[in-house]
Amino acid sequence: MSRPVAVTIVHRYLMKEFFQPFLVNTVFFSFIFLMTQILEITNMVVNYNLRLSRIVLMMLYTLPFFLQFILPMSVMLAILLTFLRMSGDNEITALKAGGIGLYQLLPPALLFAAFGCLLTGLVSWYGLPWGRTNFKQLALETAQQHLDALIKERTFNDTFKGVMLYVSHMDPASRMLTDVFIEDQRTENIVTTVVAPSGNLLNDVSRGKVVLRLYNGMISQVDVDRRSVNTVQFSTYDIALDLKPGKGRAGISTSKSEEEMYVSELLHHIRTAAIRDSRYYKLLLEFHKKFSLPFACMALGLLAVPLGIQFKAAKRSYGIGLGMGFFLLYYILLSAGWVFGEA
């Protein structure tokens, strides 16, 4: 057998060997990362009584965020474990004896790392915005369909942004409220207090808001700057409650965050930014993050080659530990850079 043919066979063999641990690692770490969301999912099930299909969708939508970290780790471990096994089985020694040098083992590792870069890039560039957008929409729909779960009777509810709500009784079927008290502090230096004997919860799906319609009540408005108080009685009064980030569980933003933007959208906002404020730098950080995470596959994959070849079976655990140490160091530095960038 000629040497080029032997090298080609070895390259195919290595590529085949890389994929099995890669798939196992990806599935395993995806399961571990999803388990970190179990408390939040349990909270949604308890509060909203979600169907299994919605829970599965929520887990699916959160998966791209985890995959952009899992895939580089899986690429590194796949290459590392493959070369560790080959070293332990003396396959590396046999290849050397057959005239195949260590440098000739690099092309398959480079190709596999490039495959990991492309896969992570697709997840980061397209999967993450898709997942974040759909997860937020699903969470918003869930909150709107289960408004009765957001409000507790005889409790001061701070679920909605800038609004404190107290209800003596609520009928889940008709969503009728009894003895309603509202303190609205959404306007700066103005505190508005609304009291009504009855009210009704309505949905405004188009604006992502909840409308609370009150009947035969009274509004008291205190202006702190002017030191004045205005009192108005009403027969019907509608107050909009935002499902936006606040103190409560329904904190769902209707504006697009950095992670929900595609690369083209990030570039557009960066180039058209009038001032370089905190929002500008967050967009810039997210843009660079979409390329730094895929590149981790190449850096960590190349690092795994010498680690796997150097440590034999007796030192296999040490080699894996060292590889994981480099992996953690990379993401610690990445997180530190992210924190310093936001500061």
From TrEMBL:
Is-annotated flag, keyword Transmembrane? yes
- Subcellular location field: Cell membrane
Q: Indicate the principal place this protein occupies in or around the cell.
A: membrane
* InterPro entries cross-referenced by the UniProt entry: LptF, LptG/LptF_permease
Q: Which domain of life is it from?
A: Bacteria
Task: Identify one Pfam family in the record.
Answer: LptF_LptG
Which keywords does this chain's UniProt record carry?
Answer: Cell membrane, Membrane, Transmembrane, Transmembrane helix
List, in alphabetical order, the GO biological process terms annotated in this UniProt record: lipopolysaccharide transport; transmembrane transport
Residues crossing the lipid bilayer are: 21-39, 59-84, 105-128, 291-311, 318-340
Q: Does the keyword Transferase apply?
A: no
Q: Could you state one GO cellular component term attached to this entry? A: ATP-binding cassette (ABC) transporter complex
What's the protein's topology in the membrane?
Answer: Multi-pass membrane protein
Q: What is this protein called?
A: LPS export ABC transporter permease LptF
Gene symbol? lptF
